[in-house]
Amino acid sequence: MPLDHSDVEKIAHLARMALDESQIDAYAEDLSNILGLVEQLEAADTTDIEPMSHPLHMAQRLRFDEVTEEVRREKNQAVAPSVENGLYLVPKVIE
Amino acid sequence: MHSKSIVELGAALRAGEFSSVELTRHFIQRIERLDGDLNTLITTTPEQALVEAESADQAVKAGRAGVLTGIPIVQKDIFCTRGVKTSCGSKMLDSFISPYDATVVERLRQAGVVCLGKTNMDEFAMGSSNETSFYGPVRNPWDRERVPGGSSGGSAAAVAARLAVAATGTDTGGSIRQPAALCGVTGLKPTYGRVSRFGMIAFASSLDQAGPMTRNAEDAALLLQAMAGFDPKDSTCANEAVPDYSSTLEDSLEGLKIGLPREYFDAGLDPAVATSVEAAIEVYKRLGARVIDISLPNSGLAVPTYYVVAPAECSSNLSRFDGVRFGYRCKEPKDLEDLYKRSRGEGFGAEVKRRIMIGAYVLSAGYYDAYYLKAQKTRHLISDDFKQAFERVDVIMGPTTPTTAFGLGEKMDDPVTMYLNDIYTIATNLAGLPGISLPVEPVKGLPVGLQIIGNYFTEAKILNAAHRFQQETEWHRLKPDLSKQS
C-alpha cells in the first residue's frame, strides 16, 4: 500500500521521531517501496501454518525470584544526559 | 607477522619468538599507517591494548597461556566494552561510554586476547554496505572505490587488510557472512542462541547472533570456542554443551552429503560468481562428498519476511533510545514529547529511521495481522524448507552473495535494491541456523564467498567442511595489495 505525506507523519509520531518536513516525501516513497517488497507475502498460502516467533521454538527461561544484581545506579547514571540526586531529569511533565 | 593466523601466532608467542607487546605494537603501527584511508575502526585503544599485551606476556612466561593469549583482535562496535566508547555506528551513542562488558567481550578478555579497538559498522547494524555508519563508510581493501559489505564491514575489512588477526561480528540477516565474502575472509554466524547476546546492542532479538571473522576456519574454531556457551544473563542463550570445535576439523568428508538449493543458483546470481562457487563444489567432490540437488521452495519469501520481522523487532528495541537515560539528547527540549521526538530524529540516521517506521507501521493497530502475523507464518514455511532439506543432506552450499563488492554510493539511493544483497543469507537467520562464508576463487580481483549452511548446533561440521577446503586451496591466503592504491 503506498504511503503518503500524512501517513508518514502519523507513523513518525507513533515512533516518537521528528522528521525534517523536507524529507517526508522521500520517506513516503522509500517506505512505499519497502512495503511493496513486503506485499509479496500476500501470495503465500499460510493456511494452517503456525506463526513462528522463536527460531528454536524454545520457551523463555525463568529464573528464581531472588536478588542477583548489585546496585549500579551511579555507574549507569554516569552516562545519562542529565541527572540530579540519583534521578533522571526531564522537562516538566505536570503543569 | 601480520599475515599469520591465530594458530601460527599463538605457537610463536608460546615459543618465545616474539612477545605479545611486540606483536601488538606492530598492529598498532599498521592501524596508524593504513586505517586513515580504510576507516575500519571507530575507536582505537592502543594504551589498553599494550596493558593487555603485557599481562599476556606474563601469562606466557608463567606457562598459563591459552590458544588466544596475546592475540590482537578488534571488536565490532556493537559490543559494550567497559570504559570504552560503544557507538554502534550511531550519532545516538557517540558519547556513550559503556559501564559494563558484553559477555562476548568478557569471555574473550578472559581467554587472553588483546583488543586493538572497535570496528566501524552500519548504524545499529542496519545496512549491507557499511555506508549507513555515522562515522563514514569503510573502504574495501581490495578496491577502495567499493564497499566492504555490512553491517560488520569494519571487522571484515580490518581482518582482510591485516590490521588485526581476527574480529568479532554480528549477523542479523547476513552481516557477518556478506562482508566476509566481499572482503575475502572467513566469517561464521552460529546457531541462534549459541553465543550470548548480553551486552550486544540489540537490533532484531530473534535473529541477532555474534560470531568470529578470521583468516581461516581453524582460527574461527578457536574464537568460537571462547565465545560460545550458556550465559544466565541472556534468556535466549541455549543451554547446549559446546563441543571442541578444533578436534573435528580434520575429519574426513568422505560420504558428506551436500545439498545445492536450485533457488540459490537462479537468474539473480552473477555467472562469474556461480563459476567460482561451482569450482569450489568440485573440490568437495574430490574430497569424497556427494552432491544432491535440493529445493528450498520458499526462498523467495525470505527477504520480504525479513523486512517485516526485523523492522518490527528493531522499532521495539530502539524505543529505549529516548534521550533520557543514555545516548544523545536534543538541545533545549520544550516538553517531554519534544525531548523524545527531537532526540530520536536528530540521533538516528535515515536507514534506521526507515526501519523504525516500517516496524511501527507493521505493528500498528489494524495492520498487525496483515503484516506481522503473516510474516511469522511465512517464517515458519522458510524454516520448514530447511528442516526437510536436512533430512536428506548434511550441509547446504551455495554462494554467500549474488555479486562481488559493488561501488561506494551505488545502491544508497534505493533501499530495496540494497536489501537484495542479502538474498542468500537472510533465510538462515529466519530459521536460526548456522552458516559460514569462506573465500573461493576471486572474480576480476574481487573476493567471492562460498556459503555453507549447517543444521542446528552443527558449527563443528561446517567448520570441518570449511577447514578441509582450505587445506586443499589457497584462496583464503590471498591478501589485498595495500600499496598500489591511493
Describe the protein in words:
The complex is a heterodimer of chains A (95) and B (486). With 95 residues, chain A is mostly helical. Chain A has a domain at 5-42: Histone, subunit A (Orthogonal Bundle). Chain A has three helices and two strands. Chain A has a two-stranded antiparallel ribbon. The radius of gyration of chain A is 22 Å and the shape is flat. Chain B is an alpha/beta fold and 486 residues long. Chain B has a domain at 300-378. Chain B is 37% helix and 13% strand. Chain B is built from 15 helices and eleven strands. An eleven-stranded mixed beta sheet of chain B has the order 1-3-2-4-6-5-10-11-9-7-8, with helices on both faces. The model of chain B has no long low-confidence stretch (mean pLDDT 97). Classes of the chains: A mainly alpha (95), B alpha/beta (486). Chains A and B meet through helix 1 and helix 2 of A and helix 9, helix 10, helix 11, helix 12 and helix 13 of B.
State the largest interface. A-B, 52 and 79 residues
Percent strand of chain B: 5-15%
Mind summarizing the main beta sheet of chain B?
A: 11 strands, mixed
Inertia-based shape of chain B:
globular
The overall strand count of chain A is 2
The description of the largest β-sheet of chain A is:
2 strands, antiparallel
What share of the residues of chain B lie within helices?
25-40%
Give the helix tally of chain A.
3
Percent helix range of chain A: 25-40%
